[in-house]
Design a protein that fits this description.
Blueprint lengths: L6 E12 L9 E2 L7 H12 L8 H4 L2 E8 L2 E7 L13 E17 L1 H12 L24 E2 L2 H7 L6 H10 L3 E9 L8 E9 L6 E15 L21
Parallel strand pairs: 2-5
Antiparallel strand pairs: 1-5, 1-6, 3-5, 3-7, 4-5, 7-9, 8-9
């Protein structure tokens, strides 16, 4: 468990397209349903200005969690290409993305490190992107000044960040509360946790390496600002006809 001295930085990850691959092979580039730890750590490393060959052990040691505010839609991009010199057709490739997705991510650790990351995402050295270079964010990552608290507390307390149109759609169907899925770093001995190979060990292009981490799935309940009205509106539309 995290000690009382830790702080947590909340981030919102929103964009037209996102791609969080953890097991892409050959010409098929997939995406997970939520941001991976390696993807978000890479985003933070870029914001700090670290080179790909730099050590990221300090960032990988941060506790990580993500909340699915708007799951988005999986889309497939079919790509063809020809060799620049010979003109020979290259292998057909597939790229999968999440369209119109919104997530709240949180990283927890030493207050000094968390403050440095907060300053970095507000003024990044290298442009951060949402998993791939072709996926820029559609809004600032910043969700406010970091402070004391755990990843779980931050994911529970942050207001719903889904797009307004999505909130209205869900607000019409559901009540004043909405349940959101969370994925949070778990202790290695947690029997109820799953494993994911997205713990970054090295981003060096010559030898990228990733380790396993324990991930516990859960859910939190947040307020729905566009809940359906439970009482009729306070007006009489028939009066406009002049009959009263």
């Amino acid at each position: 468990m995290s000690g009382p001295a830790t702080h947590t930085l909340p981030l919102v990850l929103a964009g037209p397209l996102q791609a969080w691959g953890s097991s892409s092979r050959f010409s098929r580039r997939g995406t997970e349903n939520a941001p991976t730890k390696s993807g978000v750590i890479g985003l933070l490393a870029a914001a700090l200005g670290r080179e790909r060959t730099a050590d990221v052990a300090d960032l990988a040691a941060l506790r990580f969690g993500v909340r699915v505010d708007q799951p988005g839609t999986r889309v497939r991009d079919y790509q063809t290409a020809h060799h620049l010199v010979t003109g020979v057709s290259m292998p057909i490739s597939e790229r999968f993305y999440l369209s119109d997705a919104v997530f709240v991510a949180a990283v927890e650790g030493d207050p000094e490190m968390i403050d440095r990351l907060y300053q970095a995402v507000r003024m990044p050295v290298y442009l951060p992107y949402l998993g791939r270079r072709s996926c820029p964010p559609s809004r600032p990552f910043d969700l406010g000044t970091p402070g004391p608290g755990t990843v779980e507390e931050v994911l529970r307390e942050q207001p719903w960040q889904a797009s307004r149109w999505y909130q209205r759609r869900r607000g019409w169907r559901e009540g004043s509360k909405i349940e959101l899925t969370t994925l949070v770093d778990a202790s290695p001995g947690d029997g109820g946790a799953d494993s994911s190979r997205d713990l970054p060990l090295s981003f060096d292009p010559r030898h990228r390496r990733y380790g396993l981490r324990a991930v516990r799935s859960g859910s939190v309940t947040v307020s729905n600002p566009h809940a359906r009205r439970t009482s009729p509106p306070d007006h009489d539309p028939v009066s406009a006809l002049g009959g009263r």
